[in-house]
Write a structure and sequence with these properties.
Chains: A mainly alpha (322), B mainly alpha (284), C alpha/beta (249)
Strand content of chain B: under 5%
Largest interface: A-B, 42 and 41 residues
Distance between the termini of chain B: 39 Å
Structural class of chain C: alpha/beta
Radius of gyration of chain C: 18 Å
Number of helices of chain C: 9
Largest sheet of chain C: 6 strands, mixed
Number of helices of chain B: 12
Shape of chain B: globular
Number of domains of chain C: 2
Strand order of the largest sheet of chain C: 6-7-8-3-9-10
Number of strands of chain B: 2
Helix content of chain C: 25-40%
Oligomer: heterotrimer
Helix content of chain B: over 70%
Distance between the termini of chain C: 29 Å
Strand content of chain C: 25-35%
CATH architecture of the largest domain in chain C: 3-Layer(aba) Sandwich
CATH superfamily of the largest domain in chain C: P-loop containing nucleotide triphosphate hydrolases
Radius of gyration of chain B: 18 Å
Largest sheet of chain B: 2 strands, antiparallel
Structural class of chain B: mainly alpha
Order of helices and strands of chain C: EEEHEEHEHHHEHEHEEHH
Shape of chain C: globular
Chain lengths: 322, 284, 249
């Protein structure tokens, strides 16, 4: 599989390589000179890129659509906070530990939850997120209950921005590099026909668990960076179903199951959001709801594939004319 | 003993409302393979409709149900024709996403219109005494009506021609069509009926709890737990499962904490699916 | 004397009140083509599922008693993917393609059982598609293929797993006469490469020509296990098919 990964890296076209370099350079530059407004905007975009890419792995590629993605994000934020407040860990250690611990959590629940068929899995993940929210609120001694946890601001906004952007780039790169490898092809086989996949020698349980854990670690780290930056978290924010909603919608819009879809979605939506809707929160959300409905009916494969099909048709028509 | 009875009755009453809500949900799933994540919003709309209607009717919310039933049926039918129809029998992800979007749309428009304030339908004060236990009148009435409607629906499904046609379509659409049943019409009817059941649950709930536009989100999880417990598509299973969950919740609330009893729904879902991946009474 | 590659001992399974398989015992030697036939309801599909360990979600497909041994390993309770690793490949009755993936991707996934590189898998898949006659459908999505093509795809996918034993469940169903002949030719060629084959079929005629031995099931029991010529003359077999049609040899 390593060979396949290296081959994928080698196949990256020049325009993309330049883009990556530009991104890295841009991030570094922004770290030093960017305005706080743009830094926080790009941080939000980067965070959703992380959320969407990771959700894409379990939901888009493996076909196990989760309606509880926010649970991992919230857990990452809370674990980071608790480790710092209760155990006085230095923040890098707390951050990494929250990623690992959330991964362990995912591994533990994967055993019962991945046995379920698609619908039950989706509902269970929704239920999981809600239950974690309730439990976190209940364990007042540990988590500060409904009042939440306050931290001293531990990292500067520009560092948070840089970290989140780096995490986003890693997530996307990982998805890219794992295409056309045994791992991802096994996941795709599971999505297409789990029964057949099993009879083809794929250990579906193991693969699904791997995908699930992977999809949990990234949001956890993002949640950790979030709280290090914002310095406050409470159950309502940490397990806000709106985050799941946004993730799903952005990924579906960009193209579920693709590498670039989880990037296009957040970029388009966050930019639109900033410029148009931030002033009308409820109308904003109502419109989001209507957009999802329209997407499902008219563009079930996301905007990317619709655009590409449009381009194909244009090409064919031009070809005929010529 | 008094405590036990009180918990039991409370649980049954709550459960009967869950049953009404979940009945609609499981029916829609069983017949059309649609996971209606907007179902809680039908309950919410039922609450608000009853609130305003009972104000106009001089405070007899029970009348609201028969009056609102055709309205909500129409609402469900229109929703079906406009939007839901396109994803019937499509992969479940599509229906979950679509109804998710509908749910968000309805909730946020509702917040805009009605604000996040809590309301309740004032009606009937005082309590009855049954077996040494005090039960508030609104609760008792709500529970009784809910159970009656659910049972009525069950009998409808089992005994009438239309009910049998509905069940036929849920078993196998093609065979049903070969028997001359118009599946598309059945889909429309079922979605309308499901909407009415959900709204009725809301009507009754509005006399017991304070509610606001977000109340649907609170109930939908319970409805899913019930549906999973009873087996998706299994109407009787939903009834029984709902009563069980209602009682279990009350037990937990009594023994532990009201807050944590909300987690019961999730635990039930996972526990059930671990042991019987097709629900206790089996899927239809 | 060829080695016994598959040994089914005393396999029984009942569903509720129905006895699907009762004390089925037989063995298959390396390199043979063996057919299992029987009228509808004889228990062929159940037997297939018992042997190959495929378990659709939420159901159990373990036999009530009996054992299945494959190349010496007891595979009775093994999950499907382990059985595949051991070298037993299957082609289902209802075709089970990886729907949204192309023909070549379908086959490549099979190759990944014993290998790590997807790139290599794609290369090998080209060759296999040629062998089953699907080279021109290489980039077609599985959901766009005809039934006959899907069946060949499944065989190709099974071959990609580099099996020692290939089991085909009612593969001839739904094929035209000429497609059946093509399929049989493919079966012979695969067997010629050293792969043992078990065919489960309803249609007698299809398998007479290729089988070395024919096992007949009726109402859950094994009633015959002999050469094709002997089977057509076997009174028990004739009786079992009476009322249905005997496909003439």
């Amino acid at each position: 599989m390593i060979k396949d990964i290296l081959r994928n890296l080698g196949r990256l076209g020049w325009p993309w390589r330049i883009l990556v370099v530009l991104l890295v350079a841009g991030t570094v530059m922004f770290y030093f000179t960017g305005s706080p407004y743009y830094q926080s905007l790009f941080l939000a975009i980067a965070m959703y890129v992380v959320l969407c890419s990771s959700w894409n792995i379990i939901s888009g590629i493996t076909g196990y659509v989760s309606f509880g993605h926010v649970a991992f994000w919230g857990l990452g934020a809370y674990i980071t906070a608790v480790l710092i407040v209760k155990l006085d860990l230095p923040w890098p250690l707390a951050l990494l530990s929250s990623g690992i611990l959330t991964g362990v959590f995912a591994a533990l629940i994967s055993y019962p939850i991945l046995k379920l068929s698609e619908v039950y899995f989706a509902i269970s993940m929704l239920a999981l997120a809600e239950t974690v929210k309730i439990l976190v609120g209940y364990l007042r001694g540990l988590t500060g209950g409904g009042g939440g946890i306050y931290l001293r601001p531990l990292i500067r906004p520009n560092l948070a921005f840089a970290l989140m952007t780096a995490l986003a780039m890693i997530a996307v790169l990982l998805t890219y590099v794992l295409q056309d490898t045994k791992f991802f092809k096994s996941l795709m086989a599971i999505k297409n026909n789990e029964l057949a996949a099993g009879s083809l020698g794929i250990d579906t349980t193991r693969r699904k668990t791997q995908a699930f854990i992977l999809s949990a670690v990234f949001p956890a780290l993002a949640g950790g960076i979030y709280i290090l930056n914002v310095a406050f978290i409470d159950p309502k924010t940490a397990f806000d179903i709106g985050i799941t909603l946004n993730t799903i919608m952005m990924t579906v819009f960009g193209g579920l199951g693709t590498v670039i879809g989880p990037v296009i979605g957040p970029v388009v939506f966050m930019l639109l959001s900033e410029t148009l809707w931030a002033r009308f929160p409820f109308v904003h959300k109502a419109i989001l709801g209507a957009i999802i409905v329209a997407l499902v009916i008219f563009l079930p494969r996301g905007i990317l594939s619709a655009v590409m099909r449009g381009i194909e048709r244009l090409r064919m028509r031009l070809g005929r004319a010529a | 003993m008094g405590d036990f009875l009180s918990i039991l009755i409370s649980g049954l009453i709550m459960g009967s409302i869950y049953a009404l809500l979940a009945g609609g949900l499981t029916l829609i799933w069983g017949v059309m393979r649609i996971v209606n994540l907007a179902h809680g919003e039908f309950l919410m709309l039922g609450c608000f409709a009853t609130y305003y209607l009972s104000g106009a009717l001089g405070g007899i919310p029970l009348l609201a149900i028969p009056l609102l039933a055709p309205v909500f049926f129409l609402f469900g039918a229109v929703l079906y024709l406009l939007v839901v129809r396109k994803i019937v029998n499509a992969p479940e992800l599509m229906s979950m996403l679509l109804t998710f979007g509908v749910s968000i749309f309805i909730i946020n428009i509702s917040v805009l219109v009605w604000s996040g304030e809590m309301r309740i339908v004032e009606y009937l004060t005082g309590s009855y005494q049954i077996g040494g236990v005090l039960i508030s009148k609104p609760r008792l009435v709500a529970g009784t009506v809910a159970v009656s409607i659910s049972l009525g629906m069950y009998l409808f499904l089992q005994k009438t021609r239309l009910g049998t046609a509905i069940r036929a379509v849920s078993y196998d659409r093609e065979i049903a069509e070969q028997c001359g049943i118009n599946a598309n019409l059945i889909y429309l009817l079922v979605f309308g009926i499901g909407t009415v059941l959900g709204a009725s649950a809301g009507s009754l709930a509005s006399t017991i709890f304070a509610f606001n536009p977000l109340v649907g989100k609170h109930f939908i999880l319970k409805a899913f737990a019930v549906t999973v417990l009873g087996g998706m598509g299994n109407f009787l299973g939903a009834l029984i499962g709902a009563l069980i969950i209602g009682v279990v919740e009350q037990v937990f609330a009594y023994v532990l904490d009201a807050q944590i009893s909300a987690a019961v729904a999730f635990v039930v879902i996972i526990a059930t699916l671990l042991v019987r991946p097709r629900g206790i009474m089996g899927e239809r | 004397m060829s080695e016994t590659i598959l040994q089914v001992e005393d396999l029984s399974k009942r569903f509720g009140g129905v006895v699907a398989n009762q004390n089925i015992t037989f063995s298959v030697a390396e390199g043979e083509i063996v057919s299992i036939i029987g009228p509808n309801g004889a228990g062929k599909s159940t037997l297939f599922k018992m042997i190959c360990g495929v378990r659709p979600k939420g159901s159990t497909r373990k036999p009530d008693n009996g054992r299945v041994r494959f190349r010496g390993h007891d595979i009775t309770a093994l999950p499907a993917h382990r059985i595949c690793h051991l070298g037993l490949a299957l082609v289902f009755q209802e075709t089970e393609p990886l729907r949204a993936m192309t023909a070549i991707e379908n086959v490549a996934v099979g190759y990944l059982v014993r290998h790590e590189s997807y790139h290599e898998a794609l290369q090998r898949a080209e060759g296999i598609l040629e062998r089953v006659g699907l080279a021109d459908r290489r980039d077609s999505t599985a959901s766009d293929l005809t039934l006959a093509e899907l069946k060949r795809l499944e065989i190709g996918r099974a071959l990609a797993t580099e099996p020692t034993l290939l089991m085909l469940d009612e593969t001839m169903a739904g094929l035209t006469l000429s497609e059946v002949q093509e399929a049989l030719g493919l079966v012979r060629r695969i067997n010629g490469e050293g792969i043992t084959i078990i065919l489960i079929e309803h249609v007698l005629e299809a398998v007479m020509a290729v089988s070395k031995r024919v096992i007949v099931l009726d109402q859950g029991r094994k009633i015959a296990d002999e050469s094709p010529e002997a089977v057509v003359k076997d009174p028990a077999v004739v009786k079992a098919y009476l009322g249905g049609e005997i496909e003439n040899a």
